[in-house]
Amino acid sequence: MYRMRSLKALIGLLAALSSIVLLGCQKNDEATTTKRKLEITVTAPTVLKSPRLIHLEGKAGDVELTCQGEKLLAELAPGVYAVVIRATYYDSETGADVETSYTGDLEVTNDQKPLQLSFTLQYTPSGGKDQLLITEIFYSGVDAKYIHDKYIRIANTSKDKTLYLDGVLLLQSHFNTNSKKECTPPVPFAEQFVADVVYQFPGTGRDHPLKPGEQITICQSAVDHREGGLPSVDLSHADYQWVDAKNAFLFNKKPMPHNPAVPDMKPIYVHQDRPDLQGQGMWIIHNGGVQAFALARCKAESLEEYVNDKAHFFNYTWKSVSPKLTKDMPCHYPPITIPNGWIEDAVVLGVKEKWEWTVLSPLLDAGFCGVTEKWADAARFDKSVQRRKNADGSWIDTNNSTEDFMVAKPSLLH
After folding, report:
1. 111 CB neighbour count, 10 Å cutoff
2. What SS3 class is residue 395?
3. pLDDT tens per residue, range 15-35
4. Which one of 219, 261, 297, 307 is at 20 to 30 Å from 122 when CA atoms are compared?
5. Under a CB-based contact definition with an 8 Å cutoff, are residues 170 and 242 in contact?
C-alpha cells in the first residue's frame, strides 16, 4: 500500500516537472519568435532631378510591406528575407513616369529596437517591359570610301507578345558627341531628344508585326554590297531601307543604290545641318560613330501637325568649345525636338579619344559605345556594336550603352 502511494506521488511529481519544462520551452519559443519592427525609407535615384513619388510597394519574403509616404513598414520575425521594392516616380523635367526598384537580402536579428534602413532605388525603366530595342549598329562600313552598307538591327524583347513596327520613329541626334557646342538658348536635353533625322516605319497599326524575340534589319540601301568584289554585306534581304525611290539622289555623280523589292521607310524630317546637304532623304550615317540613335512612338494626335508646328523646332546660335569660337554661328536647319517621353530606346555612339559631351538625357542613355577608342582609327571598319545578352538569351538593357554593348564582327557580314 505504501509502495502504491509512493509510485503515485512519483508519477505526479514527474507530470508536474514535465509541465514546467514544456511551459519553459513554450516561453522560450515565444521569445525567439518576437517580431521586430522594420522601417525602410526609400530615396529616388540621383539621376532624377525633379522626382515625385506616385507609387510604392514592397515585399520581404512573403510579407507585404505597408506603404506610408516614402516609407515601408512591417513587423518581422528574426531571419533572412529577400526584399523587393518597386516605385514609380513622375519626373517633371522629362514629363515621364520612371520605374525604379531595389532588390537585396535583409537580415532581421532578435532585437527589441526598431530596424531602420534607407535604400536608394535603381533606375530600371526597361527591365521586364515589352518593348523594341536597338540590338546592333553597323555604322563604320567596310571601307572609308564606301558609304552605302550601313545597317541597324531592332528586336522585340517580349517573351510572349507580338509588337508592331507601324508608325515607330527612327531618330538620329542633331548634335555630335565629339563636338560640344555652347548654344543659346541651352539645349533642352532634359525634356527633348534633339534630332535632325526622323524616319517612320510604314503601316496603319497592325501591318508590320514583330514576333517575340524576332529581329529585323533596316539599312541605307537594301542591295548586295558584295557586288564588284567589295568584302561587304548582302542587304538585299533587309526588311526596310531608308533611301526611298524618290530620294535616291546622286552622290559623287552616282545614284544611291535602291531596291524596289524592299519596303521604304518614310522620311519625316531629314535635314543635316550643312548647306551642301539639303533636301529630304539626305542621310548618311557618320562612319566615325559620333551620334545617338533612338526609337520612339508618337504620342501626339497627329505627327504631321506636330512636325509642321514651328514651336517643336530648336532655333539656336552656337559657339564651339573646342576649338573655342567667340562668334555666334547660325544653325542652317533647326532640328526638331521629340519629347523624351516618346522614346522607347536610345543608344549613344562615341569615340573615347574625342568624347566631349553626351547629346541626350542620361535617363535615356547613361553611357556610350563605339567600335574603337581612337579617332580616325583604320581598325574601326568591319566592326559593329552589338547588344549583350543574359545567360537565358534575353537582351541586356540597363540604359547604359557602355555596359549594354560590345564590339564584334557585324552579324550580317559573311
Report:
1. 10
2. strand
3. 554 544 444 444 444 445 689
4. 297
5. yes
